[in-house]
């Protein structure tokens, strides 16, 4: 870390504390050359590795934009999208790896999106898993209708009509 005043590279850390729930570290440093003090904030960056090999920082906004497209015309509000992006970030961070392949971010989106809106989920999954035929949709819909183990055996979320 170079001193911002004299560009000297020997700077001592005199205080260090976690900020933003431990996602960043704030350090107070002192320059060994000119004696001036400055503060740095180092954020642990979560990198997403794209299929091309390019990495970019994880962005909740990107998750929201990606899901927004699938939610067009669906009753899904901005709050719900933000919450979904937050859950995705938590899941991705919980993996314990600093570099996440982009398809794992997609995987982390599928679960919460399925709970949020089944139509949006199908749209997103069709692109993400590159559905190529109507059978792919049928299979996915059959999976959606299959009761989750341990839950009631009725079809989920479909109250009987009169
Ligand atoms: Zn200095």
Q: What features would you describe in this structure?
A:
It is built from five helices and six strands. By secondary structure, it is an alpha+beta fold. It has a domain at 59-145. It has a three-stranded antiparallel beta sheet with strand order 1-2-3, with no helix packed on it. A three-stranded mixed beta sheet has the order 5-4-6. Helix 1 (60-70) crosses helix 2, helix 1 crosses helix 4 (118-128) and helix 2 (78-94) crosses helix 3 (102-116). The longest helix has 17 residues, at 78-94. The chain starts with 10 loop residues before the first strand and ends in a 17-residue tail after the last helix. The model has no long low-confidence stretch (mean pLDDT 87). Zinc ion binds at residues 3, 5-6, 8, 31, 33-34, 36.
Descriptors:
three-stranded antiparallel β-sheet; 5 helices; alpha+beta; binds zinc ion; 162 residues; elongated; 6 strands; three-stranded mixed β-sheet
Bound molecules: zinc ion
The number of E-state strands comes to 6
Compute the CA-based radius of gyration.
23 Å
For the residues shown, what is the average pLDDT?
Answer: 87
What's the tally of helices? 5
The helix-and-strand class reads alpha+beta
How large is the share of residues in beta strands?
15-25%
Based on Cα principal axes, name the global outline. elongated
N-to-C SSE series? EEEEEHHEHHH
Which runs of at least 5 residues are low in confidence (pLDDT < 50)?
Answer: none
The spatial strand order of the largest sheet comes to: 1-2-3
What is the terminal separation in angstroms? 70 Å
The biggest beta sheet reads: 3 strands, antiparallel
Share in helix: 40-55%
């Amino acid at each position: 870390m170079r001193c911002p005043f004299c560009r000297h590279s020997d700077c001592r850390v005199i205080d260090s504390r976690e900020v933003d729930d431990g996602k960043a570290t704030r350090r107070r440093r002192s320059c060994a050359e000119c004696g001036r003090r400055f503060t740095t904030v180092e954020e642990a960056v979560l990198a997403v590795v794209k299929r091309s090999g390019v990495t970019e920082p994880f962005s909740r906004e990107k998750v929201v934009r990606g899901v927004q497209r699938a939610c067009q015309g669906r009753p899904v509000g901005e709050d719900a999208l933000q919450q979904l992006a937050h859950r995705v970030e938590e899941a991705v961070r919980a993996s314990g790896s600093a570099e996440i392949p982009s398809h794992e971010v997609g995987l982390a989106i599928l679960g919460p999106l399925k709970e949020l809106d089944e139509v949006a989920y199908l749209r997103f999954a069709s692109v993400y898993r590159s559905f190529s035929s109507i059978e792919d949709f049928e299979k996915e819909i059959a999976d959606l209708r299959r009761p989750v183990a341990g839950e009631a055996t009725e079809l989920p979320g479909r109250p009987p009509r009169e």
